[in-house]
Protein backbone atom coordinates (compact mmCIF):
# COMPACT_ATOMS: atom_id res chain seq x y z
CA UNK A 1 0.00 0.00 0.00
CA UNK A 2 1.59 3.31 -1.05
CA UNK A 3 2.06 6.01 1.56
CA UNK A 4 1.11 9.66 1.22
CA UNK A 5 3.27 12.35 2.84
CA UNK A 6 0.99 14.77 4.60
CA UNK A 7 2.70 18.15 5.19
CA UNK A 8 1.40 20.54 7.77
CA UNK A 9 2.60 24.11 7.16
CA UNK A 10 1.07 25.86 10.10
CA UNK A 11 0.48 24.85 13.69
CA UNK A 12 -2.90 26.57 13.58
CA UNK A 13 -4.06 23.97 11.08
CA UNK A 14 -4.16 21.37 13.86
CA UNK A 15 -7.00 23.29 15.46
CA UNK A 16 -9.26 22.36 12.60
CA UNK A 17 -10.34 18.82 13.52
CA UNK A 18 -12.10 18.23 10.23
CA UNK A 19 -8.94 18.86 8.27
CA UNK A 20 -6.88 16.70 10.58
CA UNK A 21 -9.32 13.77 10.31
CA UNK A 22 -9.37 13.92 6.54
CA UNK A 23 -5.57 14.05 6.43
CA UNK A 24 -5.28 11.11 8.80
CA UNK A 25 -7.73 9.13 6.71
CA UNK A 26 -5.67 9.76 3.57
CA UNK A 27 -2.50 8.72 5.32
CA UNK A 28 -4.09 5.40 6.15
CA UNK A 29 -5.67 4.59 2.81
CA UNK A 30 -2.95 6.17 0.70
CA UNK A 31 -3.42 8.05 -2.58
CA UNK A 32 -1.80 9.55 -5.65
CA UNK A 33 0.18 12.84 -5.66
CA UNK A 34 -1.96 15.72 -6.94
CA UNK A 35 -0.81 18.33 -9.51
CA UNK A 36 -1.43 21.89 -8.13
CA UNK A 37 -1.17 25.21 -9.95
CA UNK A 38 -1.32 28.72 -8.36
CA UNK A 39 -1.87 31.96 -10.30
CA UNK A 40 -0.65 34.63 -10.37
CA UNK A 41 2.84 33.92 -9.10
CA UNK A 42 3.36 37.64 -8.34
CA UNK A 43 0.57 40.04 -7.51
CA UNK A 44 0.85 43.79 -6.82
CA UNK A 45 -2.17 45.62 -5.42
CA UNK A 46 -2.83 48.99 -3.84
CA UNK A 47 -3.47 49.19 -0.12
CA UNK A 48 -7.21 49.02 0.58
CA UNK A 49 -8.06 47.16 -2.63
CA UNK A 50 -8.57 43.39 -3.26
CA UNK A 51 -6.09 40.65 -4.14
CA UNK A 52 -7.20 37.52 -6.05
CA UNK A 53 -5.40 34.14 -6.38
CA UNK A 54 -6.56 31.01 -8.22
CA UNK A 55 -5.54 27.53 -7.11
CA UNK A 56 -6.45 24.48 -9.22
CA UNK A 57 -5.82 20.73 -9.26
CA UNK A 58 -6.57 17.93 -11.70
CA UNK A 59 -7.72 15.53 -9.01
CA UNK A 60 -10.85 15.61 -6.98
CA UNK A 61 -10.45 18.11 -4.17
CA UNK A 62 -10.41 16.72 -0.64
CA UNK A 63 -8.69 19.48 1.39
CA UNK A 64 -7.28 22.86 0.29
CA UNK A 65 -5.69 25.35 2.65
CA UNK A 66 -4.68 29.00 2.16
CA UNK A 67 -1.86 30.49 4.21
CA UNK A 68 -0.78 34.18 4.28
CA UNK A 69 2.70 34.89 5.67
CA UNK A 70 2.59 31.68 7.72
CA UNK A 71 -0.95 32.24 9.04
CA UNK A 72 -3.71 29.78 8.17
CA UNK A 73 -6.59 31.98 7.04
CA UNK A 74 -8.92 29.64 5.06
CA UNK A 75 -9.73 25.93 4.70
CA UNK A 76 -11.78 24.37 1.88
CA UNK A 77 -13.30 20.86 2.10
CA UNK A 78 -15.50 18.93 -0.29
CA UNK A 79 -18.46 20.07 1.79
CA UNK A 80 -17.52 23.76 1.40
CA UNK A 81 -15.48 26.63 2.89
CA UNK A 82 -14.54 26.72 6.55
CA UNK A 83 -13.61 29.76 8.70
CA UNK A 84 -14.42 32.30 5.97
CA UNK A 85 -14.24 35.98 7.09
CA UNK A 86 -14.91 39.42 5.60
CA UNK A 87 -11.24 39.80 4.66
CA UNK A 88 -10.52 36.24 3.56
CA UNK A 89 -12.98 34.36 1.35
CA UNK A 90 -13.14 31.87 -1.55
CA UNK A 91 -15.50 30.86 -4.36
CA UNK A 92 -15.75 27.70 -6.43
CA UNK A 93 -14.70 28.01 -10.10
CA UNK A 94 -14.56 24.26 -10.77
CA UNK A 95 -15.13 22.99 -14.33
CA UNK A 96 -15.16 19.39 -15.55
CA UNK A 97 -11.70 17.93 -15.09
CA UNK A 98 -10.36 21.07 -13.32
CA UNK A 99 -11.01 21.66 -9.65
CA UNK A 100 -10.42 25.39 -9.12
CA UNK A 101 -11.00 27.86 -6.29
CA UNK A 102 -10.48 31.62 -6.19
CA UNK A 103 -9.04 33.03 -2.98
CA UNK A 104 -9.72 36.75 -2.21
CA UNK A 105 -8.11 39.09 0.30
CA UNK A 106 -10.31 42.17 0.80
CA UNK A 107 -9.11 45.56 2.08
CA UNK A 108 -5.49 44.57 1.68
CA UNK A 109 -3.15 45.92 4.38
CA UNK A 110 0.58 46.47 4.34
CA UNK A 111 1.19 43.48 6.67
CA UNK A 112 -0.50 41.19 4.10
CA UNK A 113 2.48 41.64 1.81
CA UNK A 114 4.66 38.56 1.48
CA UNK A 115 3.94 34.89 0.68
CA UNK A 116 0.52 33.49 -0.17
CA UNK A 117 0.48 29.65 -0.13
CA UNK A 118 -2.06 27.22 -1.56
CA UNK A 119 -1.78 23.56 -0.46
CA UNK A 120 -3.92 20.70 -1.66
CA UNK A 121 -3.83 17.53 0.40
CA UNK A 122 -1.70 15.05 -1.51
CA UNK A 123 0.23 17.72 -3.46
CA UNK A 124 3.14 20.05 -2.98
CA UNK A 125 2.49 23.61 -1.73
CA UNK A 126 2.42 26.38 -4.26
CA UNK A 127 3.68 29.83 -3.20
CA UNK A 128 2.93 33.27 -4.73
CA UNK A 129 4.23 36.70 -3.76
CA UNK A 130 1.93 39.59 -2.80
CA UNK A 131 3.15 43.21 -2.95
CA UNK A 132 1.03 45.89 -1.26
CA UNK A 133 1.77 49.34 -2.68
CA UNK A 134 0.79 52.98 -2.05
CA UNK A 135 -0.40 55.61 -4.53
CA UNK A 136 0.60 59.18 -3.73
CA UNK A 137 0.30 62.58 -5.43
CA UNK A 138 2.07 64.07 -8.44
CA UNK A 139 2.55 67.76 -9.33
CA UNK A 140 4.63 69.86 -11.73
CA UNK A 141 5.95 72.74 -9.64
CA UNK A 142 4.99 76.25 -10.82
CA UNK A 143 2.02 75.35 -13.02
CA UNK A 144 1.60 76.85 -16.48
CA UNK A 145 4.54 78.85 -17.88
CA UNK A 146 5.02 81.68 -20.37
CA UNK A 147 8.53 82.05 -21.81
CA UNK A 148 10.29 83.96 -24.59
CA UNK A 149 11.27 81.96 -27.63
CA UNK A 150 14.70 80.36 -27.33
CA UNK A 151 14.89 80.51 -23.53
CA UNK A 152 16.36 77.49 -21.76
CA UNK A 153 14.01 76.37 -19.00
CA UNK A 154 13.63 73.60 -16.42
CA UNK A 155 10.51 71.92 -15.07
CA UNK A 156 10.38 69.92 -11.85
CA UNK A 157 7.96 67.08 -11.08
CA UNK A 158 7.27 66.00 -7.51
CA UNK A 159 5.84 62.61 -6.51
CA UNK A 160 4.85 62.58 -2.83
CA UNK A 161 3.80 59.60 -0.67
CA UNK A 162 4.48 56.54 -2.88
CA UNK A 163 5.53 52.95 -2.17
CA UNK A 164 7.73 51.51 -3.50
CA UNK A 165 9.93 54.08 -5.27
CA UNK A 166 7.85 55.26 -8.22
CA UNK A 167 8.87 55.45 -11.87
CA UNK A 168 8.76 59.03 -13.22
CA UNK A 169 8.65 59.95 -16.92
CA UNK A 170 7.94 63.00 -19.11
CA UNK A 171 5.91 63.61 -22.25
CA UNK A 172 5.83 66.70 -24.52
CA UNK A 173 2.83 67.04 -26.85
CA UNK A 174 2.19 63.30 -26.43
CA UNK A 175 5.76 62.33 -27.33
CA UNK A 176 7.39 60.30 -24.55
CA UNK A 177 10.73 61.58 -23.30
CA UNK A 178 11.47 58.31 -21.46
CA UNK A 179 12.11 57.68 -17.78
CA UNK A 180 14.17 60.23 -15.92
CA UNK A 181 16.73 59.67 -13.19
CA UNK A 182 14.68 60.78 -10.21
CA UNK A 183 15.98 61.29 -6.71
CA UNK A 184 13.96 59.68 -3.90
CA UNK A 185 13.86 60.28 -0.15
CA UNK A 186 12.26 57.86 2.31
CA UNK A 187 9.74 59.40 4.68
CA UNK A 188 8.59 56.71 7.08
CA UNK A 189 7.55 53.74 4.94
CA UNK A 190 6.80 55.98 1.91
CA UNK A 191 8.95 57.65 -0.73
CA UNK A 192 9.07 61.21 -2.11
CA UNK A 193 10.65 61.57 -5.55
CA UNK A 194 11.76 64.55 -7.68
CA UNK A 195 12.56 64.63 -11.37
CA UNK A 196 13.64 67.60 -13.55
CA UNK A 197 13.20 68.18 -17.28
CA UNK A 198 15.32 70.68 -19.22
CA UNK A 199 14.01 71.99 -22.52
CA UNK A 200 14.16 74.96 -24.88
CA UNK A 201 11.08 77.12 -25.43
CA UNK A 202 10.36 76.61 -29.14
CA UNK A 203 6.58 76.47 -29.49
CA UNK A 204 3.43 76.22 -27.43
CA UNK A 205 3.43 72.78 -25.81
CA UNK A 206 1.62 70.51 -23.41
CA UNK A 207 4.04 68.96 -20.91
CA UNK A 208 3.06 65.95 -18.79
CA UNK A 209 4.74 64.16 -15.91
CA UNK A 210 3.78 60.49 -15.33
CA UNK A 211 4.29 58.60 -12.06
CA UNK A 212 3.56 54.90 -11.65
CA UNK A 213 4.08 51.80 -9.52
CA UNK A 214 3.40 48.19 -10.63
CA UNK A 215 0.02 48.09 -8.87
CA UNK A 216 -1.31 50.95 -11.02
CA UNK A 217 -2.88 50.00 -14.34
CA UNK A 218 -2.77 53.64 -15.46
CA UNK A 219 -0.05 56.07 -14.28
CA UNK A 220 -0.93 59.19 -12.34
CA UNK A 221 -0.08 62.39 -14.24
CA UNK A 222 0.20 66.16 -13.96
CA UNK A 223 -0.03 68.52 -16.96
CA UNK A 224 1.12 72.09 -17.55
CA UNK A 225 0.94 74.27 -20.66
CA UNK A 226 3.94 76.14 -22.02
CA UNK A 227 3.21 79.36 -23.94
CA UNK A 228 6.08 80.64 -26.10
CA UNK A 229 6.22 84.32 -27.14
CA UNK A 230 8.40 85.82 -29.87
CA UNK A 231 10.96 88.46 -28.88
CA UNK A 232 9.04 91.25 -30.65
CA UNK A 233 5.78 90.30 -28.99
CA UNK A 234 7.46 90.14 -25.60
CA UNK A 235 8.93 93.65 -26.15
CA UNK A 236 5.50 95.05 -27.04
CA UNK A 237 4.02 93.37 -23.98
CA UNK A 238 6.69 94.86 -21.72
CA UNK A 239 6.11 98.33 -23.19
CA UNK A 240 2.38 97.96 -22.69
CA UNK A 241 2.90 97.01 -19.07
CA UNK A 242 5.25 99.97 -18.57
CA UNK A 243 2.76 102.40 -20.12
CA UNK A 244 -0.07 100.99 -18.00
CA UNK A 245 1.97 101.38 -14.83
CA UNK A 246 2.98 104.95 -15.77
CA UNK A 247 -0.61 105.98 -16.55
CA UNK A 248 -1.88 104.46 -13.32
CA UNK A 249 0.81 106.23 -11.28
CA UNK A 250 0.13 109.59 -13.01
CA UNK A 251 -3.60 109.31 -12.44
CA UNK A 252 -3.03 108.55 -8.76
CA UNK A 253 -0.67 111.54 -8.41
CA UNK A 254 -3.13 113.88 -10.18
CA UNK A 255 -5.97 112.73 -7.95
CA UNK A 256 -3.82 113.35 -4.87
CA UNK A 257 -2.93 116.88 -6.01
CA UNK A 258 -6.58 117.65 -6.77
CA UNK A 259 -7.72 116.53 -3.33
CA UNK A 260 -4.87 118.44 -1.68
CA UNK A 261 -5.77 121.63 -3.62
CA UNK A 262 -9.43 121.42 -2.61
CA UNK A 263 -8.53 120.97 1.06
CA UNK A 264 -6.03 123.86 0.91
CA UNK A 265 -8.56 126.26 -0.69
CA UNK A 266 -11.24 125.40 1.85
CA UNK A 267 -8.88 126.06 4.74
CA UNK A 268 -7.71 129.38 3.24
CA UNK A 269 -11.27 130.61 2.66
CA UNK A 270 -12.24 129.74 6.19
CA UNK A 271 -9.18 131.57 7.52
CA UNK A 272 -9.99 134.73 5.49
CA UNK A 273 -13.58 134.79 6.67
CA UNK A 274 -12.52 134.46 10.27
CA UNK A 275 -9.93 137.26 9.86
CA UNK A 276 -12.53 139.67 8.42
CA UNK A 277 -14.86 139.23 11.37
CA UNK A 278 -11.99 139.62 13.78
CA UNK A 279 -11.00 142.92 12.13
CA UNK A 280 -14.56 144.25 12.33
CA UNK A 281 -14.80 143.41 16.01
CA UNK A 282 -11.37 144.96 16.64
CA UNK A 283 -12.33 148.22 14.83
CA UNK A 284 -15.59 148.49 16.80
CA UNK A 285 -13.75 147.96 20.06
CA UNK A 286 -11.17 150.66 19.22
CA UNK A 287 -13.90 153.16 18.20
CA UNK A 288 -15.72 152.68 21.47
CA UNK A 289 -12.52 153.13 23.45
CA UNK A 290 -11.85 156.56 21.78
CA UNK A 291 -15.31 158.05 22.66
CA UNK A 292 -15.65 160.17 25.91
CA UNK A 293 -17.31 158.42 28.77
CA UNK A 294 -19.99 161.15 29.29
CA UNK A 295 -21.30 160.97 25.73
CA UNK A 296 -20.84 157.28 25.11
CA UNK A 297 -24.09 155.72 24.09
CA UNK A 298 -26.13 159.00 23.58
CA UNK A 299 -28.26 159.61 20.52
CA UNK A 300 -28.62 162.98 18.76
CA UNK A 301 -32.37 162.90 18.38
CA UNK A 302 -32.50 166.42 16.95
CA UNK A 303 -30.13 165.94 14.08
CA UNK A 304 -31.57 167.12 10.72
CA UNK A 305 -29.90 168.41 7.60
CA UNK A 306 -32.46 170.92 6.21
CA UNK A 307 -31.83 173.72 8.80
CA UNK A 308 -35.29 173.64 10.38
CA UNK A 309 -36.06 173.91 14.09
CA UNK A 310 -37.57 170.90 15.62
CA UNK A 311 -39.53 170.70 18.85
CA UNK A 312 -39.28 167.45 20.68
CA UNK A 313 -42.08 165.81 22.59
CA UNK A 314 -40.88 167.21 25.96
CA UNK A 315 -41.08 170.87 24.82
CA UNK A 316 -37.39 171.32 24.14
CA UNK A 317 -36.27 173.13 21.01
CA UNK A 318 -33.60 171.60 18.80
CA UNK A 319 -31.87 174.08 16.50
CA UNK A 320 -29.76 172.88 13.58
CA UNK A 321 -27.81 174.91 11.06
CA UNK A 322 -25.64 173.79 8.14
CA UNK A 323 -22.26 173.82 9.80
CA UNK A 324 -23.00 172.31 13.21
CA UNK A 325 -25.60 170.32 15.05
CA UNK A 326 -26.58 171.05 18.61
CA UNK A 327 -28.72 169.28 21.09
CA UNK A 328 -29.91 170.11 24.60
CA UNK A 329 -29.47 167.68 27.43
CA UNK A 330 -32.25 169.17 29.57
CA UNK A 331 -35.07 171.53 28.68
CA UNK A 332 -34.83 173.40 31.97
CA UNK A 333 -31.17 174.38 31.79
CA UNK A 334 -30.91 174.94 28.08
CA UNK A 335 -27.88 177.18 27.42
CA UNK A 336 -24.90 177.57 25.18
CA UNK A 337 -22.74 175.36 27.33
CA UNK A 338 -25.11 172.50 26.85
CA UNK A 339 -24.74 172.64 23.12
CA UNK A 340 -22.27 170.02 21.99
CA UNK A 341 -20.94 169.38 18.58
CA UNK A 342 -21.77 165.94 17.28
CA UNK A 343 -19.77 164.03 14.77
CA UNK A 344 -21.48 161.18 12.96
CA UNK A 345 -19.22 158.23 12.14
CA UNK A 346 -20.02 155.11 10.24
CA UNK A 347 -17.81 152.04 10.59
CA UNK A 348 -17.79 149.44 7.86
Give short descriptive properties of this protein.
elongated; five-stranded mixed β-sheet; 36% strand; 348 residues
Description:
Helices cover 21% and strands 36% of the residues. Mean pLDDT is 78; it is low at 1-31 and 318-340. It has two helices and 21 strands. The relative contact order is 0.09. Strands 2-10-9-4-5-6 form a six-stranded mixed beta sheet, covered by helices on one side. Strands 12-19-18-14-15 form a five-stranded mixed beta sheet. It has a four-stranded antiparallel beta sheet with strand order 1-3-8-7, with no helix packed on it. Strand 18 and strand 19 (220-229) form a beta hairpin. The chain has 348 residues and is an alpha+beta fold. The protein has helices at 17-29, 231-290, and strands spanning 36-39, 42-46, 51-57, 63-68, 71-77, 80-82, 88-92, 99-105, 114-120, 126-133, 137-140, 145-148, 152-162, 167-172, 175-179, 183-187, 190-200, 205-212, 220-229, 310-311, 317-318.
Amino acid sequence: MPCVYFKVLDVGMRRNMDVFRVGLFLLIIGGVSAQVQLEPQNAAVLRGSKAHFNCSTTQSLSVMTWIVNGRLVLTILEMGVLNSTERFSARNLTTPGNYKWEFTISTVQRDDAGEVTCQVLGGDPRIATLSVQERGNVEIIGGNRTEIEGVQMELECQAIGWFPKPNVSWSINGLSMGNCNSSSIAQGNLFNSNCSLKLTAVKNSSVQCFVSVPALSTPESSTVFLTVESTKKATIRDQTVLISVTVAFSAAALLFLLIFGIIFCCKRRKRKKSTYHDEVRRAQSQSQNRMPANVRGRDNRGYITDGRDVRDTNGGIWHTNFNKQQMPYAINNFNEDDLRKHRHATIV
